[in-house]
Design a protein that fits this description.
alpha/beta, Metallo-beta-lactamase, Chain A, 7-stranded mixed beta sheet, 6-stranded mixed beta sheet, 15 strands, globular
């Protein structure tokens, strides 16, 4: 399994693209979030819209969903030999977010007698419910209110029989998420958003290190970080965490 970070930056990044990923799972391409920089970050990493098999949307901030409409429309308006040959987009989402996501897409997709369902298929997951993708299972982790008060959001866990990764999504308040309960002896990577300065909706490096036991720090892959991350080299080294870098492929499972 390959994990390709299309970008690793926050909402206002100028150099690292938005924190979106392609995960290659048994010859299936799973897109993790679709921010507004997707139209540039995806081809820059060697992928295109048509290759995507599944899209997971964690929440409705623009750096995670702002590029979804273009992806869906591009796939739908395909032509072969002059004939319309639409490709529907399969979207995985926590059941709590489903209606809001559909309403978001309705603004642009529901016209000319078409509905959102003409463009998209939705896979709605409850807490603890898993989707099988090849030899892997994908399950959502409800993080509602823990990124921003009143905001529905989710992370996920992706597992094979031998290993798994835990993906926080965007988080500020770590303790109530109980993310630590998702981690076991088979966890090889904890993909955690980390801010190196004070941030009202993302955990700081100190908050992350205080939450996770020291024995797990080496498994933390910091993402969604400040553009001036180079200014914090010493802190990162002392913390014994790793940085996810855009377009640097990881093979963990």
């Amino acid at each position: 399994m390959k994990i390709c970070p299309l970008g690793v930056g926050g909402a206002f990044t100028k150099s690292n693209y938005h924190n979106n990923y392609i995960i290659e799972v048994d010859e299936k391409f799973l897109l993790i979030d679709a921010g507004t920089t997707l139209r540039n970050s995806l081809p820059a990493a060697g992928y295109d819209y048509l290759a995507i098999d599944f899209v997971f949307i964690s929440h409705l901030h623009y750096d995670h969903v702002g590029g979804l409409e273009e992806l869906v429309m591009t796939r739908f308006w395909q032509f072969e030999n002059g004939q319309h040959s639409p490709i529907k987009t399969t979207i995985i989402v926590h059941e709590k977010l489903a209606s809001l996501l559909k309403n978001y897409l309705k603004n642009s997709l529901e016209n000319q007698e078409r509905t959102v369902e003409d463009f998209c298929d939705f896979i709605l997951l409850k807490n603890g419910e898993a989707l099988t993708i090849g030899n892997y299972t994908f399950s959502v982790i409800d993080t509602t209110n823990f990124h921003a008060d009143g905001l529905i959001s989710a992370g996920f866990k992706l597992s094979s029989k031998k290993a798994n990764i835990v993906f926080s999504g965007d988080i500020k308040h770590l303790e109530p998420t109980k993310l630590i309960e998702q981690i076991d002896e088979n966890t090889v990577g904890i993909f955690q958003d980390v801010s190196f300065t004070f941030n009202g909706v993302h955990a700081t490096l100190k908050e992350v290190l205080d939450y996770y036991p020291a024995r797990l720090h080496g498994k933390i892959y910091a993402m969604h970080y400040n553009d001036n991350v180079e200014d914090y080299k010493e802190e990162i080294k002392q913390a014994n965490i790793q940085l996810v870098k855009k377009h640097e492929v990881l093979e963990l499972l």
